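Researcher: We're teaching a course module on how sequence relates to structure. For the next exercise, students receive a sequence and then see the predicted structure as tokens, so they can try to spot secondary structure elements on their own. Here is the exercise chain.
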Amino acid sequence: MQPAGIRSPGEVVFVNMNILEFTALVGVGALAAGFLGALTGLGGGVVIVPFLVLMGVDMKYAIGASLVSVIATSSGAAASYVKEGYSNIRIGMFLEIATTLGALTGAYLMNFTPTQTLSIIFGIVLLISAYLSLRTPPRQHGAEKPDLLAVRLRLDGAYPTAEGKLSYHVHRVPLGFGLMYLAGCLSGLLGIGSGAFKVLAMDQAMRIPFKVSTTTSNFMIGVTAAASAGVYLHHGQIDPVLTMPVMLGVLVGSLLGAQVLMEARTRLLRRIFSAVILILGIQMIYKGLTGRP
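Model: And here is the predicted structure for the students to work with:
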């Protein structure tokens, strides 16, 4: 047996467990991350990165594995959401322009950012996300006036409910586009798929219904993650031993989460969203400040 952590240039080593035990543990954690990621639009990376870091994996290799898993989450959950009519494809494709540019920027900046600083930034982002998610008031989307730019871009849509299709209008498109660039930067820098900020940008800034925001986020995160994952791969920070169980676990979890979302209540989703990222945010800040799990 060897000490836990990552040994240059990225070999995964373990403590008190063999490679099969480590793979099984990572796979279970990744399944839970994928389930939560699909259920809330987080993308799984927001859970899997802290999980791996707290297991002793180097932050940058955890981010590399997370980005690959985010692509798997998007592939697994997005197909179900599009089929059911929840995702707004036009919004997703439009906002991907901003998130892809942001992802490349963040991946570039990662090489100049110390690991402990990344951990603190990650934690702060999660705490802000938890607060903003809970403070969103209920809205009657169908009663809001249309936004001129959104109408020209044909971004308005409808999604299925128990009472039938419910129409909604998209608002403040330029603000949402700018926030998506920031979300892309965070994705490339932290490997989280930036689902938390994408959901919040669409839900609050653009006033898109929460279920549409989460499902459209899942549709978008794969493209954002793919843009920045290429940079991590170029720098040798994607380890196959670590990435494979993470990717498979997240993929299975995302498919399960996509089925649960169809019947879940929005208020419950918000509470799950906030509680999980609040706990993880505190852990990541503590680790960044102290250098200990």
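Model: If you want an answer key for the exercise: The beta strands are 5-7, 11-13, 157-161, 164-168. The radius of gyration is 18 Å.
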